[in-house]
Input
Amino acid sequence: MSEKLKGRKIDHLDISMEENVQARHVTTGFEDVTLIHRALPEIDHDRIDLTTRFLNHKFSAPIMVEALTGGVEKATKLNAAIAVAVEKLGLGMMVGSQRAAIEDSKLERTFSVAREKAPNAFLIANLGGPQLAGKYGVREARKAVEMIEADALAVHLNPLQETVQPEGERGYKGLADKICQITKALDVPVIVKETGAGISGEDAKKLEAAGVAAIDVAGLGGTSWAAVEYHRAKRLGDEFHQALGEAFWDWGIPTVASLIETGQSVHMPIVASGGIRSGIDATKAIVLGASLAGMAQPILDPAFHGATRVEEKLAFVIEELRTAMFLVGADSIQKLGKAPAIVTGKMAEWLSMRGFDPRVYARRGP
Ligand SMILES: Cc1cc2nc3c(=O)[nH]c(=O)nc-3n(C[C@H](O)[C@H](O)[C@H](O)COP(=O)(O)O)c2cc1C
Output
Protein backbone atom coordinates (compact mmCIF):
# COMPACT_ATOMS: atom_id res chain seq x y z
CA MET A 1 0.00 0.00 0.00
CA SER A 2 1.21 3.48 -0.69
CA GLU A 3 2.59 5.38 2.28
CA LYS A 4 0.05 8.10 1.47
CA LEU A 5 -2.95 5.76 1.85
CA LYS A 6 -1.52 4.36 5.08
CA GLY A 7 -0.93 7.87 6.48
CA ARG A 8 -4.46 8.88 5.57
CA LYS A 9 -5.97 5.91 7.39
CA ILE A 10 -4.01 6.69 10.53
CA ASP A 11 -5.02 10.36 10.25
CA HIS A 12 -8.69 9.35 10.01
CA LEU A 13 -8.49 7.24 13.15
CA ASP A 14 -6.52 9.86 15.09
CA ILE A 15 -8.74 12.75 14.02
CA SER A 16 -11.93 10.81 14.82
CA MET A 17 -10.56 10.17 18.32
CA GLU A 18 -9.03 13.59 19.01
CA GLU A 19 -11.36 16.12 17.36
CA ASN A 20 -15.07 16.82 17.27
CA VAL A 21 -16.10 15.47 13.87
CA GLN A 22 -19.82 15.25 14.50
CA ALA A 23 -22.42 17.26 12.57
CA ARG A 24 -22.68 20.70 14.17
CA HIS A 25 -25.87 22.51 13.20
CA VAL A 26 -27.97 19.69 11.75
CA THR A 27 -29.20 16.59 13.56
CA THR A 28 -30.30 13.09 12.59
CA GLY A 29 -33.96 14.07 13.07
CA PHE A 30 -34.58 11.46 15.79
CA GLU A 31 -35.68 14.29 18.12
CA ASP A 32 -38.66 14.76 15.77
CA VAL A 33 -39.68 11.13 16.23
CA THR A 34 -41.79 10.24 19.26
CA LEU A 35 -42.75 6.72 20.21
CA ILE A 36 -46.01 6.18 22.02
CA HIS A 37 -45.49 5.30 25.68
CA ARG A 38 -47.65 2.47 26.97
CA ALA A 39 -48.64 2.61 30.62
CA LEU A 40 -50.18 -0.81 30.07
CA PRO A 41 -47.55 -2.58 27.97
CA GLU A 42 -49.21 -5.99 28.64
CA ILE A 43 -45.90 -7.82 28.11
CA ASP A 44 -43.23 -9.19 30.48
CA HIS A 45 -39.96 -7.32 30.37
CA ASP A 46 -38.03 -10.56 30.90
CA ARG A 47 -39.66 -12.20 27.89
CA ILE A 48 -38.78 -9.59 25.31
CA ASP A 49 -37.21 -11.30 22.31
CA LEU A 50 -34.70 -9.18 20.43
CA THR A 51 -33.74 -11.77 17.84
CA THR A 52 -34.20 -10.88 14.20
CA ARG A 53 -33.12 -11.84 10.71
CA PHE A 54 -31.17 -9.76 8.23
CA LEU A 55 -30.27 -11.11 4.79
CA ASN A 56 -31.21 -14.58 6.02
CA HIS A 57 -28.86 -14.50 8.98
CA LYS A 58 -30.01 -14.64 12.59
CA PHE A 59 -29.00 -11.73 14.84
CA SER A 60 -29.46 -11.79 18.64
CA ALA A 61 -30.43 -8.10 18.43
CA PRO A 62 -30.90 -5.75 15.46
CA ILE A 63 -27.57 -3.99 15.93
CA MET A 64 -24.37 -3.90 13.88
CA VAL A 65 -21.02 -2.19 14.10
CA GLU A 66 -20.40 -0.07 11.02
CA ALA A 67 -17.16 0.12 9.03
CA LEU A 68 -14.36 1.68 11.03
CA THR A 69 -10.97 0.47 10.01
CA GLY A 70 -8.44 -1.95 8.53
CA GLY A 71 -5.31 -1.73 6.44
CA VAL A 72 -2.93 -0.38 9.09
CA GLU A 73 -1.17 -2.15 11.93
CA LYS A 74 -3.29 -0.77 14.74
CA ALA A 75 -6.47 -1.78 12.95
CA THR A 76 -5.76 -5.45 13.69
CA LYS A 77 -6.32 -4.86 17.40
CA LEU A 78 -9.40 -2.72 16.83
CA ASN A 79 -11.04 -5.16 14.42
CA ALA A 80 -10.20 -8.07 16.76
CA ALA A 81 -11.81 -6.27 19.71
CA ILE A 82 -14.98 -5.51 17.76
CA ALA A 83 -15.15 -9.03 16.33
CA VAL A 84 -14.83 -10.71 19.74
CA ALA A 85 -17.67 -8.56 21.09
CA VAL A 86 -20.07 -9.04 18.16
CA GLU A 87 -19.42 -12.78 18.15
CA LYS A 88 -20.24 -13.00 21.84
CA LEU A 89 -23.37 -10.87 21.51
CA GLY A 90 -24.57 -12.38 18.20
CA LEU A 91 -24.49 -9.11 16.25
CA GLY A 92 -22.95 -8.06 12.92
CA MET A 93 -19.84 -6.17 11.87
CA MET A 94 -18.68 -4.39 8.75
CA VAL A 95 -14.93 -3.96 8.22
CA GLY A 96 -13.39 -0.77 6.83
CA SER A 97 -12.46 -0.32 3.19
CA GLN A 98 -10.29 -3.27 2.09
CA ARG A 99 -8.54 -1.37 -0.67
CA ALA A 100 -5.25 -1.33 1.26
CA ALA A 101 -5.18 -5.13 1.48
CA ILE A 102 -6.27 -5.59 -2.14
CA GLU A 103 -3.18 -3.58 -3.07
CA ASP A 104 -0.84 -5.15 -0.51
CA SER A 105 -1.63 -8.69 0.63
CA LYS A 106 0.58 -8.26 3.71
CA LEU A 107 -2.25 -6.20 5.18
CA GLU A 108 -4.91 -8.90 4.77
CA ARG A 109 -4.68 -9.97 8.40
CA THR A 110 -5.77 -6.51 9.59
CA PHE A 111 -9.16 -7.52 8.13
CA SER A 112 -9.20 -11.33 8.29
CA VAL A 113 -8.66 -11.14 12.04
CA ALA A 114 -12.38 -10.26 12.14
CA ARG A 115 -13.38 -13.71 10.82
CA GLU A 116 -10.78 -15.40 13.02
CA LYS A 117 -12.34 -13.84 16.10
CA ALA A 118 -15.93 -13.99 14.90
CA PRO A 119 -16.43 -17.37 13.21
CA ASN A 120 -20.24 -17.15 13.31
CA ALA A 121 -21.13 -13.45 13.25
CA PHE A 122 -22.51 -11.74 10.15
CA LEU A 123 -19.44 -10.07 8.62
CA ILE A 124 -19.56 -7.55 5.81
CA ALA A 125 -16.66 -6.87 3.44
CA ASN A 126 -16.15 -3.31 2.19
CA LEU A 127 -14.95 -1.59 -0.96
CA GLY A 128 -15.18 2.03 -2.06
CA GLY A 129 -17.43 3.37 -4.81
CA PRO A 130 -14.65 5.46 -6.36
CA GLN A 131 -12.40 2.40 -6.71
CA LEU A 132 -15.24 0.45 -8.34
CA ALA A 133 -16.03 3.36 -10.65
CA GLY A 134 -12.34 3.19 -11.60
CA LYS A 135 -10.20 0.10 -12.03
CA TYR A 136 -11.83 -2.26 -9.55
CA GLY A 137 -14.40 -4.81 -10.62
CA VAL A 138 -15.69 -8.30 -9.91
CA ARG A 139 -12.19 -9.67 -9.24
CA GLU A 140 -11.50 -7.21 -6.41
CA ALA A 141 -15.02 -7.62 -5.02
CA ARG A 142 -14.54 -11.41 -4.81
CA LYS A 143 -11.15 -10.93 -3.20
CA ALA A 144 -12.59 -8.65 -0.52
CA VAL A 145 -15.33 -11.18 0.27
CA GLU A 146 -12.90 -14.13 0.38
CA MET A 147 -10.44 -12.22 2.58
CA ILE A 148 -12.85 -12.26 5.53
CA GLU A 149 -15.19 -15.07 4.38
CA ALA A 150 -17.83 -12.37 4.34
CA ASP A 151 -21.59 -12.91 4.44
CA ALA A 152 -22.11 -9.78 2.32
CA LEU A 153 -20.18 -7.05 0.52
CA ALA A 154 -20.73 -3.36 1.24
CA VAL A 155 -19.92 -0.75 -1.37
CA HIS A 156 -19.46 2.62 0.30
CA LEU A 157 -20.42 5.87 -1.36
CA ASN A 158 -18.49 8.96 -0.20
CA PRO A 159 -18.65 11.72 -2.83
CA LEU A 160 -18.59 14.39 -0.12
CA GLN A 161 -15.47 13.02 1.52
CA GLU A 162 -13.63 12.55 -1.78
CA THR A 163 -14.36 16.15 -2.71
CA VAL A 164 -13.08 17.63 0.53
CA GLN A 165 -10.08 15.28 0.73
CA PRO A 166 -7.02 16.94 -0.84
CA GLU A 167 -6.11 13.75 -2.76
CA GLY A 168 -9.71 12.59 -3.22
CA GLU A 169 -10.89 10.40 -6.11
CA ARG A 170 -13.83 12.18 -7.66
CA GLY A 171 -14.76 9.92 -10.59
CA TYR A 172 -18.22 8.53 -9.87
CA LYS A 173 -19.45 8.09 -13.45
CA GLY A 174 -20.58 4.59 -14.34
CA LEU A 175 -20.68 3.35 -10.75
CA ALA A 176 -24.31 2.16 -10.85
CA ASP A 177 -23.48 -0.11 -13.83
CA LYS A 178 -20.42 -1.45 -12.04
CA ILE A 179 -22.49 -2.19 -8.94
CA CYS A 180 -24.95 -4.03 -11.19
CA GLN A 181 -22.13 -6.20 -12.62
CA ILE A 182 -21.01 -7.04 -9.12
CA THR A 183 -24.45 -7.89 -7.75
CA LYS A 184 -24.84 -10.33 -10.67
CA ALA A 185 -21.42 -11.94 -10.27
CA LEU A 186 -21.10 -12.38 -6.51
CA ASP A 187 -22.73 -15.20 -4.58
CA VAL A 188 -23.15 -13.01 -1.48
CA PRO A 189 -25.60 -10.10 -1.22
CA VAL A 190 -24.36 -6.58 -1.96
CA ILE A 191 -25.20 -3.75 0.44
CA VAL A 192 -24.67 -0.15 -0.59
CA LYS A 193 -23.93 2.36 2.15
CA GLU A 194 -23.23 6.06 2.43
CA THR A 195 -20.74 7.41 4.92
CA GLY A 196 -22.67 10.13 6.75
CA ALA A 197 -24.48 12.13 4.07
CA GLY A 198 -27.45 9.80 3.50
CA ILE A 199 -29.17 8.17 0.52
CA SER A 200 -32.15 9.76 -1.23
CA GLY A 201 -35.28 7.99 -2.46
CA GLU A 202 -34.10 8.60 -6.05
CA ASP A 203 -30.73 6.94 -5.48
CA ALA A 204 -32.34 4.10 -3.53
CA LYS A 205 -34.41 3.27 -6.64
CA LYS A 206 -31.29 3.28 -8.82
CA LEU A 207 -29.59 0.92 -6.38
CA GLU A 208 -32.61 -1.38 -6.36
CA ALA A 209 -32.48 -1.51 -10.16
CA ALA A 210 -28.78 -2.37 -9.91
CA GLY A 211 -29.71 -5.45 -7.87
CA VAL A 212 -28.45 -4.47 -4.43
CA ALA A 213 -29.86 -6.56 -1.58
CA ALA A 214 -29.94 -3.89 1.14
CA ILE A 215 -29.25 -0.20 1.66
CA ASP A 216 -27.45 1.25 4.66
CA VAL A 217 -28.46 4.90 4.71
CA ALA A 218 -25.59 6.34 6.84
CA GLY A 219 -27.30 9.69 7.01
CA LEU A 220 -26.37 13.11 8.32
CA GLY A 221 -26.34 13.88 12.02
CA GLY A 222 -23.43 11.80 13.29
CA THR A 223 -19.89 11.60 11.97
CA SER A 224 -19.24 14.17 9.24
CA TRP A 225 -16.55 13.23 6.74
CA ALA A 226 -16.32 16.84 5.65
CA ALA A 227 -15.34 17.53 9.27
CA VAL A 228 -12.75 14.73 9.33
CA GLU A 229 -11.20 16.00 6.10
CA TYR A 230 -11.44 19.61 7.37
CA HIS A 231 -9.19 18.64 10.29
CA ARG A 232 -6.84 16.71 8.04
CA ALA A 233 -6.52 19.61 5.60
CA LYS A 234 -5.87 21.91 8.58
CA ARG A 235 -3.10 19.66 9.85
CA LEU A 236 -1.61 19.54 6.33
CA GLY A 237 -1.79 23.35 6.01
CA ASP A 238 -4.11 23.03 2.99
CA GLU A 239 -6.31 26.09 3.48
CA PHE A 240 -8.39 25.50 0.36
CA HIS A 241 -9.64 22.05 1.41
CA GLN A 242 -9.95 23.18 5.01
CA ALA A 243 -12.37 25.90 3.87
CA LEU A 244 -14.25 23.41 1.68
CA GLY A 245 -14.60 21.04 4.66
CA GLU A 246 -15.90 23.84 6.84
CA ALA A 247 -18.47 24.87 4.20
CA PHE A 248 -19.80 21.32 3.74
CA TRP A 249 -19.51 20.20 7.38
CA ASP A 250 -23.29 19.71 7.75
CA TRP A 251 -24.09 18.61 4.19
CA GLY A 252 -26.42 15.72 3.54
CA ILE A 253 -29.77 14.07 4.19
CA PRO A 254 -30.58 13.59 7.88
CA THR A 255 -30.73 9.93 8.88
CA VAL A 256 -34.47 9.94 9.67
CA ALA A 257 -35.36 11.58 6.34
CA SER A 258 -33.08 9.18 4.46
CA LEU A 259 -34.53 6.16 6.24
CA ILE A 260 -38.15 7.08 5.48
CA GLU A 261 -37.42 8.19 1.89
CA THR A 262 -35.59 4.97 1.20
CA GLY A 263 -38.21 2.82 2.93
CA GLN A 264 -40.99 4.33 0.81
CA SER A 265 -38.99 4.01 -2.41
CA VAL A 266 -37.68 0.43 -2.47
CA HIS A 267 -38.55 -3.09 -1.33
CA MET A 268 -35.50 -4.33 0.50
CA PRO A 269 -34.06 -4.37 4.03
CA ILE A 270 -32.65 -1.06 5.20
CA VAL A 271 -29.98 -0.41 7.79
CA ALA A 272 -30.33 2.84 9.73
CA SER A 273 -27.00 4.45 10.50
CA GLY A 274 -25.36 7.84 10.79
CA GLY A 275 -25.65 9.35 14.26
CA ILE A 276 -27.24 6.35 16.00
CA ARG A 277 -26.07 7.08 19.52
CA SER A 278 -28.30 5.01 21.77
CA GLY A 279 -30.65 2.07 21.93
CA ILE A 280 -33.48 4.62 21.89
CA ASP A 281 -32.31 5.91 18.48
CA ALA A 282 -32.10 2.27 17.36
CA THR A 283 -35.65 1.59 18.60
CA LYS A 284 -36.98 4.60 16.72
CA ALA A 285 -35.12 3.50 13.60
CA ILE A 286 -36.72 0.06 13.73
CA VAL A 287 -40.17 1.55 14.24
CA LEU A 288 -39.46 3.73 11.19
CA GLY A 289 -38.76 0.66 9.06
CA ALA A 290 -35.10 -0.25 9.55
CA SER A 291 -34.12 -3.91 9.81
CA LEU A 292 -30.94 -3.09 11.74
CA ALA A 293 -29.35 -0.04 13.33
CA GLY A 294 -25.60 0.51 12.85
CA MET A 295 -23.04 2.51 14.81
CA ALA A 296 -19.49 3.54 13.95
CA GLN A 297 -18.11 6.43 16.03
CA PRO A 298 -19.50 5.26 19.41
CA ILE A 299 -17.54 2.00 19.05
CA LEU A 300 -14.19 3.57 18.21
CA ASP A 301 -13.05 4.56 21.70
CA PRO A 302 -14.22 1.29 23.30
CA ALA A 303 -12.37 -0.63 20.55
CA PHE A 304 -9.11 1.08 21.52
CA HIS A 305 -9.68 -0.24 25.06
CA GLY A 306 -10.40 -3.82 23.96
CA ALA A 307 -13.19 -6.34 23.48
CA THR A 308 -14.66 -6.03 26.98
CA ARG A 309 -15.31 -2.32 26.56
CA VAL A 310 -16.90 -2.89 23.13
CA GLU A 311 -19.07 -5.61 24.62
CA GLU A 312 -20.12 -3.35 27.52
CA LYS A 313 -21.00 -0.52 25.15
CA LEU A 314 -23.05 -2.74 22.85
CA ALA A 315 -24.71 -4.54 25.76
CA PHE A 316 -25.87 -1.18 27.14
CA VAL A 317 -27.30 -0.16 23.77
CA ILE A 318 -29.15 -3.49 23.66
CA GLU A 319 -30.48 -2.87 27.19
CA GLU A 320 -31.77 0.55 26.12
CA LEU A 321 -33.43 -1.08 23.14
CA ARG A 322 -35.06 -3.70 25.37
CA THR A 323 -36.26 -1.00 27.79
CA ALA A 324 -37.77 1.09 24.99
CA MET A 325 -39.45 -2.04 23.58
CA PHE A 326 -40.99 -2.69 27.00
CA LEU A 327 -42.27 0.88 27.18
CA VAL A 328 -43.93 0.72 23.76
CA GLY A 329 -45.38 -2.73 24.51
CA ALA A 330 -43.46 -4.68 21.84
CA ASP A 331 -42.08 -8.06 22.88
CA SER A 332 -40.52 -8.92 19.51
CA ILE A 333 -38.69 -7.01 16.79
CA GLN A 334 -41.51 -7.82 14.41
CA LYS A 335 -44.02 -6.18 16.74
CA LEU A 336 -41.68 -3.25 17.27
CA GLY A 337 -41.72 -2.70 13.52
CA LYS A 338 -45.49 -2.22 13.76
CA ALA A 339 -45.46 0.09 16.80
CA PRO A 340 -46.83 3.58 16.17
CA ALA A 341 -44.68 6.70 16.05
CA ILE A 342 -45.26 10.33 15.25
CA VAL A 343 -42.89 12.31 13.09
CA THR A 344 -43.20 16.05 13.62
CA GLY A 345 -41.26 19.26 13.05
CA LYS A 346 -38.51 19.55 10.51
CA MET A 347 -38.59 15.87 9.52
CA ALA A 348 -42.35 15.93 8.82
CA GLU A 349 -41.85 19.07 6.77
CA TRP A 350 -38.92 17.57 4.86
CA LEU A 351 -40.88 14.44 3.95
CA SER A 352 -44.00 16.35 2.88
CA MET A 353 -41.97 18.74 0.73
CA ARG A 354 -40.26 15.76 -0.91
CA GLY A 355 -43.54 13.98 -1.61
CA PHE A 356 -43.18 11.26 1.04
CA ASP A 357 -45.72 10.44 3.73
CA PRO A 358 -44.38 11.07 7.25
CA ARG A 359 -46.91 8.52 8.58
CA VAL A 360 -45.81 5.48 6.55
CA TYR A 361 -42.93 3.29 7.67
CA ALA A 362 -42.65 -0.03 5.94
CA ARG A 363 -40.25 -2.64 7.22
CA ARG A 364 -39.03 -4.99 4.52
CA GLY A 365 -37.65 -8.37 5.47
CA PRO A 366 -36.02 -10.75 5.57
C1 LIG B 1 -12.58 6.37 11.94
C2 LIG B 1 -13.63 6.00 10.94
C3 LIG B 1 -13.29 5.26 9.82
C4 LIG B 1 -14.25 4.90 8.86
N1 LIG B 1 -13.88 4.14 7.78
C5 LIG B 1 -14.83 3.72 6.91
C6 LIG B 1 -14.48 2.85 5.84
O1 LIG B 1 -13.33 2.46 5.67
N2 LIG B 1 -15.48 2.44 5.01
C7 LIG B 1 -16.78 2.84 5.19
O2 LIG B 1 -17.65 2.40 4.45
N3 LIG B 1 -17.12 3.69 6.17
C8 LIG B 1 -16.20 4.13 7.05
N4 LIG B 1 -16.54 4.96 8.07
C9 LIG B 1 -17.92 5.50 8.10
C10 LIG B 1 -18.82 4.75 9.06
O3 LIG B 1 -18.93 3.40 8.70
C11 LIG B 1 -20.21 5.39 9.15
O4 LIG B 1 -20.89 5.28 7.93
C12 LIG B 1 -20.19 6.85 9.54
O5 LIG B 1 -19.13 7.10 10.47
C13 LIG B 1 -21.50 7.31 10.15
O6 LIG B 1 -21.82 6.59 11.33
P1 LIG B 1 -21.61 7.21 12.80
O7 LIG B 1 -22.31 8.53 12.84
O8 LIG B 1 -22.18 6.19 13.73
O9 LIG B 1 -20.12 7.38 13.00
C14 LIG B 1 -15.61 5.31 9.03
C15 LIG B 1 -15.96 6.06 10.19
C16 LIG B 1 -15.01 6.41 11.12
C17 LIG B 1 -15.42 7.20 12.34
Q: What stands out?
A: The first helix runs from residue 3 to 18. Residues 12-13, 16, 66-69, 96-97, 126, 156, 193, 195-196, 218, 222-223, 273-276, 295-297, 300 surround flavin mononucleotide (CB under 6 Å).
